[in-house]
């Protein structure tokens, strides 16, 4: 019995919708990372990009548990000496909730070409409306 290995041209991609309203940010991001990598499929192959397209709606209604809203910080560097910028997650969720979800999902996928391609299939929306109705996405609630 041989092991099945998917090839790049044989991958079928579906579209899924995840609703982040009232759910912890990390759990939504973990489920999105699984769908983007294709680990939910029986034909998953680690060295082939088998993932699907993911639409996350209601990013502004995602919940951070515990004291993460005030204690967790997003740090970035501008490239200049001494220019390390910090933003608390309460201001990040108020101004750019899609960026907070994107950072959470990005941390859960591999840092290589497969991960970069997977992030291109992630679509984030602050509200309940999205523009991808023509792709006939399915609601993922498992």
Task: Describe it.
With 142 residues, this protein is an alpha/beta fold. It has a domain at 13-63 and 94-139: Ribosomal protein L13 (Ribosomal Protein L13p, Chain: A), CATH 3.90.1180. It contains five helices and six strands; from the N terminus they run βαβαββαααββ. The protein has helices at residues 25-37, 68-71, 89-95, 97-106, 113-119; strands spanning 15-19, 53-57, 73-77, 84-88, 122-124, 138-139. The strands form two sheets. A four-stranded parallel beta sheet has the order 5-2-1-6, covered by helices on one side. Strands 3-4 form a two-stranded antiparallel sheet. Strand 3 and strand 4 (84-88) form a beta hairpin.
- State mean pLDDT (0 to 100 scale): 96
Lateral strand order in the biggest sheet? 5-2-1-6
- Highest-level CATH class of the domain at 13-63 and 94-139: Alpha Beta
Beta content? 15-25%
The CATH topology of the domain at 13-63 and 94-139 is Ribosomal Protein L13p, Chain: A
Order of helices and strands: EHEHEEHHHEE
Give me the CATH architecture of the domain at 13-63 and 94-139, please.
Answer: Alpha-Beta Complex
What is the distance, rounded to the nearest whole angstrom, between the alpha carbons of the first and last residues?
31 Å
Name given to the CATH homologous superfamily of the domain at 13-63 and 94-139:
Ribosomal protein L13
Q: How many individual helices?
A: 5
The residue fraction in helices comes out at: 25-40%
Kindly provide the radius of gyration, computed on alpha-carbon positions and rounded to a whole number of angstroms. Answer: 17 Å
Largest sheet: 4 strands, parallel
Tally of extended strands?
Answer: 6
Structural class: alpha/beta
Extract low-pLDDT stretches.
Answer: none
Shape, please?
globular
